[in-house]
Every structure is written in C-alpha cells, then in structure tokens.
Amino acid sequence: MSSDESVILGMLAVFAGFIIFFIIIAIVYYILFALGMSKIARTQGREDMAFLAWIPIAQTFLLPLVVENDVHEGMRGKFTLIYAISWVGSIILSMFFAPFGILSMVVLLYGFYVLATRFSTNALAHTVIGVITLGMSVPISLFRFRNRQPIA
Description:
Elements: H1 3-43, H2 56-66, H3 79-93, H4 103-119, H5 123-132, H6 138-145
Helix pairs in contact: 1-2, 1-6, 2-4, 3-4, 4-5, 4-6
C-alpha cells in the first residue's frame, strides 16, 4: 500500500468516526425527545397521542399538538396546521434559499416556549438556550420537564 493510499484510508477512517459519533448523538437526542414528549403528552391528558413521540417524523408534530390550545388566540386550533405548512414550506423553500430552512424551527421553538411556560419558571431562559443551540437543547429540556407537574 502506498503512502497516498494510507493517507486516503486514514481520512476515510476519521470521516467514518465522525459519522458514527454524530449518529450516536442523534440517537441519544431522539430518545431524550421521545421520553420527554411521551410523558408530557400523558401529563397533559393526551394519552391517545403519546405514542407519536416514538415515530420519527410524527415526533416533531406532537409538540404542536400538545400546545395547540395554549398558543396565542389567533393560532388556537390552527397551530399544528401552521407548523405543518411551515415544515413543508421550509423543505421546499430551502432548495431555493437556504435560510428558509429555519422556518419550521422558529415555529417549533415558539411551541416549545409555550410548553416551557407550563413546566418551568425559567421558560424564557430555556427558549433562549434553544435558539442559541439551534434547537439542540430542546430534547434535554423536554426530558427534564417530563417529571414536573404543570405550573398553574
């Protein structure tokens, strides 16, 4: 084996290591989000929808379903539809202009803020951290909220 082949093989090994690392991180976040949202859905009286937390695409629609009636008045009863439209729109529009890809994340972070106001006295801090980390802290926060009782 030549030195060029060794270098390429080494680069491929490092790349494979990064891919495996990120897959493991994604699985951990998936499990944290699922555990947190299924317990929160049961706590909020949505036992019939708690199983959605374990279905990959449906998982993201559970949060809007849980906070559907707690968002601002103009969006009540329509929040899940707004999220679905923003989700599809962000996929389609991001093909033309990449920043549109965050459209659904903005709606989801608003839903997370509404949920955080129900389970934490520091809802704004949780939301700001969620924005700064581009949503990566949301599964951890949801996991932490799962055993709390809703704040009146």
